[in-house]
Design brief:
single chain, 441 residues, alpha/beta, Aspartate Aminotransferase, domain 1, Aspartate Aminotransferase, domain 2, four-stranded mixed β-sheet, 16 strands, 15% strand, globular
């Protein structure tokens, strides 16, 4: 693991050299802003391999990984069955631009596990899924406006880039430049966990709202679970107003439960977006739902959407292999592992006198440096982000890799075994003890 002294991270000259090279040819040296480490400081680690619960960087440093490709790797890195499935598929060809049995099999499995998805279409990313879902909703309802939630993140399509969480918040942006005002004029922003506020938006925009788009468990402002009646309130409001309820389960699908957050909370949305786990670490996503709505998509209807690599056979193979491993016993084990991780973090913070809040739903986890509960984006923005940056640096020095931004979620995998959890518990205890000696405000 990485050698350390307090918060001073051992030099990473190979990663530094690669980052210098990258900045000469890649925007900001990265292909996704949060990877740049600007939210936490220091040099981004360039990874050469992952195995199980660990990553190894270009300097030979090894880390216990709690990013897990931002939640996609529920089985851990380089899981044997996933690797075999991808190898077997690659030997037959990497892309055909034509239908395959694998995409049918994966769609059948998804529809069995999430019965609200009666018809679906595979795409390549969560952004493609969400932007396609709102196109369907607008066509189906013949309305233009959508409701989203402050601090939520549904990809980088124009209508979603207003008061978003995730990397947008980490970059300190209220919205993205280059988005024309007209693209946002039909986006209405509500407060997560405030059902009355959503009802008021519908009263002010009667017969104009096509859909409500929501992460059923907010996962892009840390983890913020829904209050007891929040999702059912959204279901009731959208039904009353003949609008569609769209669950963005790109993170929560197959993560919080085999039946997704909609199964966990017993709410059937009209449309669902999935990603991450359904591709087993390869680029894949899906949007789908009610047959009457999805029948508007070409070639059956007038809503056009297409993609050359949609349903790519390598991604379909990886997704099928991953989901095949996710029996109910796997989720029981994930719950046990995740509960231990949360307990170790809370114990380490309490012993050091450091005020934190932890929010967890299954194997997705958020930590906030705050003495008050975190239930909305306003609560998230009020917490001590500098505390997270200091924790990140201290843990990285001790061989534990947390998300390199203060507004992201942590993810536990089935590969996090007793040894990796012991190492993490020790690193947490040392890091919080060190942080507890410093100023907080």
């Amino acid at each position: 693991m990485v050698r350390h002294h307090d918060d001073l991270i051992e030099e990473a000259p190979a990663s530094r050299e690669l980052f210098d090279r990258a900045q000469r040819v890649l925007v900001g040296g990265v292909n996704s802003p949060v990877r740049s480490f600007r939210g936490v400081g220091g040099t981004p680690r360039f990874i050469v391999r992952g195995h199980g619960a660990t990553l190894e960087d270009a300097d030979g440093h090894r880390y216990i990984d709690f990013v897990m490709s931002w939640g996609a790797l529920i089985l851990g890195h380089a899981h044997a069955s996933v690797v075999r499935a991808v190898q077997d598929a690659a030997e037959r060809g990497t892309s055909y631009g034509a239908p395959t049995e694998a995409e049918v099999a994966l769609a059948e499995r998804i529809s069995r596990d999430l019965p609200s998805i009666e018809r679906m279409r595979f795409v390549n990313s969560g952004t493609e899924a969400t932007m396609s879902a709102i196109r369907v909703a607008r066509a189906f309802t013949r309305r233009r406006k959508i409701v989203v939630f402050e601090g939520g993140y549904h990809g980088h399509a124009d209508p979603f880039l207003v008061r978003a969480g995730s990397g947008v918040a980490a970059a300190g942006l209220a919205r993205s430049e280059g988005v024309p005002p007209g693209a946002l004029e039909d986006t209405l922003v509500a407060t997560y966990n405030d059902g009355d506020g959503v009802a008021e938006i519908f009263r002010r925009n009667r017969n104009e709202i096509a859909a409500v788009v929501v992460e059923p468990v907010a996962g892009n402002m840390g983890v913020v679970p829904p209050l007891d009646d929040f999702l059912s309130t959204l279901r009731d409001i959208t039904t009353e107003h003949d609008s569609l309820l769209i669950f963005d389960e790109v993170i929560t699908g197959y993560r919080v439960a085999r039946h997704g957050a909609q199964g966990l909370y017993r709410i059937d949305p009209d449309l669902t977006c999935l990603g991450k786990i359904i591709g087993g670490g390869l680029p894949a996503a899906v949007y789908g739902g009610r047959e009457d709505a999805m029948s508007l998509v070409a070639p059956l209807g007038p809503v056009y959407q297409a993609g050359t690599l949609a349903g790519n056979p390598l991604a379909m193979a990886a997704g099928l292999a991953t989901i095949h491993e996710l029996a109910d016993s796997a989720y029981s084990r994930l719950e046990s592992i995740s509960a231990r991780f949360e307990r170790d973090m809370r114990d380490a913070a309490a012993a050091a006198g450091v005020p934190i809040q932890t929010n967890r739903v299954g194997s997705m986890f958020g930590v906030f440096f705050s003495a008050a509960p975190v239930r909305s984006y306003a609560d998230v923005k009020a917490y001590d982000a500098d505390g997270y940056r200091r924790l990140f640096a201290s843990l990285l020095a001790r061989g534990v890799y947390f998300p390199p931004a203060p507004y992201e979620s942590l993810f536990v995998s089935l590969a996090h075994d007793a040894e990796s959890l012991r190492h993490t518990a020790d690193a947490l205890a040392e890091s919080f003890a060190h942080l507890g000696r410093g100023p907080w405000r």
